[in-house]
Amino acid sequence: MKVLLTGANGQLGRCFQDRLPADWQILATDSAELDITDLAQVTTAVSTFKPDAIVNAAAYTAVDNAESDVELAERINATGPANLASVAAQYGIRLVHVSTDYVFDGNANAPYTEESPTNPLSVYGRTKLAGEHTVSATAPDAIIVRTAWVFSEYGNNFVKTMLRLGKERDALSIVDDQRGCPTYAGDIAQAIIALLHQQAAGGIYHYAGDKEVSWFEFAQAIFTVAVQKAVLSKAPTLTPITTAQYPTPAHRPAYSTLAGDKIKALGITLSDWQGALNKTI
């Protein structure tokens, strides 16, 4: 299989390349090599490489910055996927597009299914949802994978931030009233590979960690492992706080646990994020 990968230098892009099956070919591109917001560039890349599938791991993910950088977030999260979907449909190529739990408002009290009503609270969430809509409308057989709280050994993420702060500070205050599922980027990559292998039906799939926690509980887990692995000599003192005590430019869902029953029915297991956390650290 020939795969055109966008966002090659991001967490998911790097992990996808690490796990690429030996008999697959890949054209791994970042924004400097392929600007997905430029339809002509996308058309040229696809017509030249002739992939069997496109995996769109490119996204504007700076949630707070997006509140003031609306135009760029829209171009990368909505216009880019629209271009990829248009060219994929034109050439009969399978598109896998990655989306987010932030398309939900967090008012639910049970895990969100693929059919749950969306109501994003932030520019990031709204632009990602716009990307979903245009992909679904333009390339109906496209696969949309919603995921959450992504971490890995690459890029910037909560795990790496906690490890850095743990070395710099003796005490940290962590939000404890937002709940979701941490997800290892390597597991997302494996899930996408499995969906392509199986030639899964188009539509939305939820793929996230197998255990729900708060950010505070996630931080506790990170520091427990970090001390066990001698990455840190001791854990900082952690204090749980509310979202109101830690205001940010973007509103985040208080509850964004994703139900994974649809993807599990295909034999794809959810992310064992605790096991992956050990390996990542």
TrEMBL record:
Cofactor binding: number and manner: Binds 1 Mg(2+) ion per monomer.
Cross-referenced InterPro entries: dTDP_dehydrorham_reduct, NAD(P)-bd_dom_sf, RmlD-like-bd
Pfam families named among the record's database cross-references: RmlD_sub_bind
Gene3D superfamilies reported in the protein's UniProt record: NAD(P)-binding Rossmann-like Domain, UDP-galactose 4-epimerase, domain 1
Stretches assigned to the RmlD-like substrate binding domain: 1-280
GO terms for MF: dTDP-4-dehydrorhamnose reductase activity
Pathway(s) the chain acts in: Carbohydrate biosynthesis; dTDP-L-rhamnose biosynthesis
Keywords: NADP, Oxidoreductase
Residue intervals passing through the bilayer: none
Cofactor: Mg(2+)
Catalytic activity: dTDP-beta-L-rhamnose + NADP(+) = dTDP-4-dehydro-beta-L-rhamnose + NADPH + H(+)
Keyword Hydrolase attached: no
Enzyme Commission number(s) from the entry: 1.1.1.133
NCBIfam families: rmlD
Family named by the database record: Belongs to the dTDP-4-dehydrorhamnose reductase family.
Function, as annotated: Catalyzes the reduction of dTDP-6-deoxy-L-lyxo-4-hexulose to yield dTDP-L-rhamnose.
Name of protein: dTDP-4-dehydrorhamnose reductase
Species: Symbiopectobacterium purcellii
Gene that encodes it: rfbD
